[in-house]
Structures are given as C-alpha cells and as structure tokens.
Design a protein that fits this description.
Structural class of chain A: mainly beta
Number of helices of chain B: 0
Shape of chain A: globular
Low-confidence stretches of chain A: none
Order of helices and strands of chain A: EEEEEEEEEEE
Low-confidence stretches of chain B: none
Largest sheet of chain A: 7 strands, mixed
Helix content of chain B: under 10%
Number of helices of chain A: 0
Radius of gyration of chain B: 13 Å
Strand content of chain A: over 45%
Mean pLDDT of chain B: 92
Radius of gyration of chain A: 13 Å
Mean pLDDT of chain A: 92
Number of strands of chain B: 10
Distance between the termini of chain A: 37 Å
Oligomer: heterodimer
Order of helices and strands of chain B: EEEEEEEEEE
Distance between the termini of chain B: 36 Å
Helix content of chain A: under 10%
C-alpha cells in the first residue's frame, strides 16, 4: 500500500508563473489536507477536501490559490502568478475520515516550491 | 496567545536520556497528532490520541483533555531521534500546529 505521493518534490518557478502541486492520497483514503510550511515557521493548515468537495478552505490565501480533488486523479493545489513569498514546503496529508480517534493523517514527502 | 504552545522550543540531551516534550492548547479538539519532522524535511505521524496514553516502541504520548495538555516522552533517547517534534490538536476538520520542538540527541 503506497503512501501519500506528492509530486514534484522540488519545483522552481519564476515570479508570475503558475505552480501546480499534485497529491495522490493513500489507497482507500478519501480525505485530503494541504498544509504550508514557510521557511523557519510552523505548519499551517490551508484546505481540507473530500472527493469533488472543498470542506474547509479557511487557511487558503484569498487570491491566486485554489485546490481541487476530482473524482478521478490526484488532488491539485494551484498557485497562480507566484510571488517570492509563496516559496515554502507544501505538504499533503490523507486520512480515511474526519479528525476522529483512529483517523490518523499520513503525510506526503512535500513539494518544495522556490520562486525566483 | 498562540492556540498551541510547545515547550521547550529547543532541547539538547545526551544519548540515553529520558525526553519530555510538552504541548498545551486552547482549541477544542477531537484528537491530537504528534508528528516528527526529520532534518531532511519529511513528516511522519507518530501518534493520534484523544484520551489516556499510547505507546509505540520507545515513544509514549499522553493527553489530559480536561487540562488541554499533551506530552511526548522518549525513553533511552538515541541520536536518530534528533528531529523536530510537532504537536497538532484538531477539531472536526483541521489541525492546528505548534511551532515544534527541535530535539538534538548527542552521542
């Protein structure tokens, strides 16, 4: 049973370009969470998705950021017109359900985005 | 005041020592995660608990819901335990994380 797969592991973009980060959850998991870790800062929640639904996006910046988790395929975190401040590690986690005892979240290796 | 406070922020110890990392939180929770982030950046979920105590190998996690406090203990610490340990209490739909405790175990 493969773990949470994120790709790419490293992504370099110039200011103004788009960044697409992909996350394939563990087999059997229908809940996906995206977190951002800015340099020298802690993990911050961004968005929580279930298949075809955004459940909680309270941590997403209001502009340029969007996320989806289609019926088929990976979850995508999309950042349009990237700026230097978007440089961070983006982690995806998946779980079989809501945050309840037993529904441990499994983390991917992260995508390290560098904006030049 | 932060919703999640971890202490200490940095901890250096000698191999073999008993380690305790504390986490106090103010958010209402369904469960609490303890995560380990390796020097290379990868994150591993160590525990998820909502009451009492859990043990896995040399790691023990406890939680007191009434006091809104959790602790992570490492017995017989080893240099390979050197990492950042992150506490993450969670409500129904999202986790809130502490800043992490950077643990260094010297041989």
């Amino acid at each position: 049973n493969a773990g949470v797969m994120q790709n790419p592991r490293h992504l370099v973009r110039r200011r103004g370009q788009e960044a697409r980060l992909r996350c394939s959850p563990m087999k059997g998991h229908s809940h996906v969470y995206w977190y951002r870790q800015l340099p020298e800062e802690g993990l911050k929640f961004m968005v929580y998705l279930q298949k075809e639904n955004i459940i909680d996006e309270s941590g997403m910046p209001k502009e340029r950021f969007s996320a989806e988790f289609p019926k088929e395929g990976p979850s995508i975190l999309r950042i349009q017109q990237v700026v230097r401040g978007d440089s961070a590690a983006y982690f995806c986690a998946s779980s079989p359900g809501d945050i309840l005892p037993g529904n441990i979240q499994y983390f991917g290796a992260g995508t390290r985005l560098s904006v030049l | 005041k932060n919703e999640v406070e971890q202490s200490p922020q940095n901890l250096t110890a000698q191999e073999g020592e008993f380690i305790t990392i504390n986490c106090s939180y103010s958010v209402g929770i369904s469960a609490l995660h303890w995560l380990q982030q390796h020097p290379g950046g990868g994150i591993v979920s160590l525990f998820m608990l909502s009451s009492g105590k859990k043990k896995h190998g040399r790691l023990i996690a406890t939680i007191n819901i009434q006091e809104k406090h959790s602790s992570l203990h490492i017995t017989a610490s080893h240099p390979r335990d050197s990492a950042v340990y992150i506490c993450g209490p969670g409500g129904a739909q999202k986790l809130v994380f502490g800043q992490g405790t950077r643990l260094t175990i010297n041989p």
